[in-house]
């Protein structure tokens, strides 16, 4: 009798943890990148107002758009930045060389580089190791590089203080849904 009760309680607990532990079961298809693309984002994400973008970034390094969420001590953000290649157009065939150059900039802590496809387009992911940040937490980030109309599109995921990688995993899934 006691074993059945304990097993029953364990099953209820497991069900509650499984169902309520992942608030990212709900996603929404959002118009992102000033309406030029779509992405399946966790429902909690909201577009960052331009005034906040201007406060957070200098004009030279400011992304074109950002979507973010905060959940207690965790923050997650996906940004969209476009870079023109001086004197020439960006092509998918140049992505690897650009990614390798970017990876070299990280010096002794280079990112992990992987190639893949997102909605039929070649992409390169640069994933940075978790690092300590000022607020005594951890930061994880991933950049997705792709060609967009002859320019380099860098879609960046940044997650701070993520317990159990829940927000980071949801962000990585979102990156793989970018469509333009």
Radius of gyration: 19 Å
The major β-sheet equals: 7 strands, antiparallel
Going by CATH, what is the homologous superfamily? Mog1/PsbP, alpha/beta/alpha sandwich
Q: What fraction strand?
A: 35-45%
Shape: globular
Can you tell me the CATH architecture? 3-Layer(aba) Sandwich
- Which stretches are poorly predicted, pLDDT < 50 over at least 5 residues? 5-23
**How many domains make up the coordinates?**
1
The N- and C-terminal alpha carbons lie at a distance of 59 Å
How many strands?
9
Q: If strands are numbered along the chain, what order do they take across the biggest sheet?
A: 3-4-5-9-8-7-6
**Average residue pLDDT:** 84
- By secondary-structure content and strand pairing, the structural class works out as alpha+beta
CATH class: Alpha Beta
Estimated helix fraction:
25-40%
The number of distinct helices, counting runs of at least 4 residues, comes to 4
Q: Within the CATH hierarchy, at the fold level, what is the topology?
A: Protein Transport Mog1p, Chain A
Give the SSE order as H and E letters.
HEEEHEEHEEEEH
Protein name: DUF1795 domain-containing protein
Keywords: Signal
Organism: Limnobaculum xujianqingii
Signal peptide: 1-25
Structure notes:
It is a single chain. Helix content is about 25%, strand content about 40%. The protein has helices spanning about 1-20, 50-55, 95-105, 165-175; strands at about 25-30, 35-40, 45, 65-70, 75-85, 110-120, 120-130, 140-150, 150-160. The strands form two sheets. Strands 3-4-5-9-8-7-6 form a seven-stranded antiparallel sheet, with helices on both faces. A two-stranded antiparallel sheet has the order 1-2. The longest helix has 19 residues, at about 1-20. It starts with a helix and ends in a 5-residue tail after the last helix. The model is unreliable at about 5-25 (pLDDT under 50). Keywords: Signal. This is DUF1795 domain-containing protein. It comes from Limnobaculum xujianqingii.
